[in-house]
Amino acid sequence: MQPFIVKLRLKDMGLTKTEGFTKTQVALAGYSKALGHPARIAILQFLATQKGCICGDIVNELPLSQSTVSQHLKELKNVGLIKGNVEGPSVCYCIDEKNWQLVKNSLNDLFKNFDPKNCC
Amino acid sequence: MQPFIVKLRLKDMGLTKTEGFTKTQVALAGYSKALGHPARIAILQFLATQKGCICGDIVNELPLSQSTVSQHLKELKNVGLIKGNVEGPSVCYCIDEKNWQLVKNSLNDLFKNFDPKNCC
DNA sequence: TGTAGCCATCGCAATATTACGATTAATTAA
DNA sequence: TTAATTAATCGTAATATTGCGATGGCTACA
After folding, report:
1. pTM
2. pLDDT digits (tens, 9 = 90+) for B56-81
3. Does strand D come within 7 Å of the CB of A88?
4. Per DSSP, which regions of B3-120 are E strands?
5. Cβ of B75 < 7 Å from strand C?
6. HSE on the CB side for B53, CA within 13 Å?
7. Neighbours of B24 (CB within 10 A)
């Protein structure tokens, strides 16, 4: 008779494993992931260059539906890169300066500590 | 009798839409996406700080299986951040300096052109 | 009190990502 | 030649992401 064999760690499949990585690594990956879509890059560029701060004009700027844009905005808000203020009937989004600097510095750290050593 | 109604743009579902975005935006998003996983951040940090260049020791460094690590390495190779040289029975991976600088500069560009204007 | 506009959320569908074990291809060592 | 080692790839499973239309909750204005 065959023994019962349980092989899987189901909870680890398809899901990003964060155990075994440093907090810094997980954080940096999270920020990068948020930047990992053209629409979200476009939104940030738009907000960064705009004089006043912008509401749902973002939707008009992007080749995506309102609901999709809303989702992207949510993701950027979740990692703290932007924040939204309700302004009458509409919502005003802008870059969260503090976190913006934080992400900037984190990425800087990643890229700075590499000095080329002729290998390969 | 009801008309036939075709509603969908199937090819646009679940797939990142790149039409309507600039080349720069798509590229930057691609790089960021590659950075969007703790394992890949860890790999890059490891390669950046290692004196000699490393092969499959990366697998031992990470809390992931060999095949999974191989997949992550592949993704980093696809965006050009690392390159691998066959070295006898094993493979030597290291950072691709040229693209490393390119990605660094691209991200720098994104973050630099924002000067805080008290909004919201 | 409607009613119109803005935007978040829900529900769905299609695809992508993550992870693993098993297998395969290539190279070195015996 | 054979066996062992290394690393890529295949196949599979679970979950995440992306996208849309439809719905619903607000606020402002008539």
Report:
1. 0.89
2. 899 999 999 999 999 999 999 999 99
3. yes
4. 82-87, 90-95
5. yes
6. 22
7. 15
